[in-house]
Amino acid sequence: MVPSPQMPVAPSGRKLAKATAVAVLVAGVVLVCFVLPAEYGIDPAGIGGVLGLTRMSGAAGASAAPASTRGPVFPQPAGYQMDAREFKLGPYEYIEFKYELEPGASMLYDWKASAPVIFNLHTDPAGKPEDASESFEKGEAAGKQGAYVAPYAGLHGWYWENPGGEEITVRLSAIGFFQSAREFHHDGTKRDYDLSKARTPE
Q: Which residues contact residue 128 at a Cβ distance below 8 angstroms, ignoring those fewer than 6 apart?
């Protein structure tokens, strides 16, 4: 008798969460060790210099965060914070939310929208005019996740715009070495957040 084929078993929620965490971790390692040195001359781990990747960017040492002299260890002056936000975007409205980071400070992030939005991961360099802003990732999507290392001091974060006529909810989760953040609304108002008072996980 030929045995009946086994039906595939759907992976559990725990397995999916574990696989997602591993994927984010791998993406962060690739970003820090290979993409940032090759594309922007930013080499926080020092691996890009060893592999010659920083020469590809033509910008090694220009505005890059200094390479660590202690290998893969990057001490920070204050503890990391965990932050979670939810934003409501009415039809054709936009909002910006950026964390204040020092050079070499890192964060992991994950944002999801209830429908595709126009987004732009960009910066406001400290002490420089608005036209000094740099964009690192932009387009239209319903979510993004990854790791980010600040190339210089300033505000680093996202612009989200609702391109349609229905309300969209954007949810952001981040963990990193930030102590404050700023929110920019479509009506021109701003709001500052002191995240140093938030509880740092033990």
A: 154
Residue 111 has pLDDT above 80, yes or no: yes
Strand partners for 112: 143, 171
The dihedral sign for the CA sequence 74, 76, 79, 83:
negative
* pLDDT number for residue 116: 98
Contact status, residue 40 vs residue 57, Cβ threshold 8 Å: yes
**Confidence class of residue 1 from pLDDT cuts 50, 70 and 90?**
low
Region of 66 on the Ramachandran plot (φ > 0 left; ψ -120 to 50 alpha; else beta): beta
* CA atoms 106, 107, 108, 111: torsion sign: negative
Question: Under CATH, which number does the domain 81-197 receive?
Answer: 2.60.120.680
Nearest CA among 119, 62, 69, 124 for reference residue 94: 119
pLDDT digits (tens, 9 = 90+) for 35-85: 566 555 666 656 555 555 555 454 444 444 444 455 677 788 888 999 999
- Nearest one of 179, 194, 197, 190 to 97, comparing CA atoms: 190
Where in the chain are the domains? 13-57, 81-197
- Can you tell me the mean pLDDT for 145-167? 97
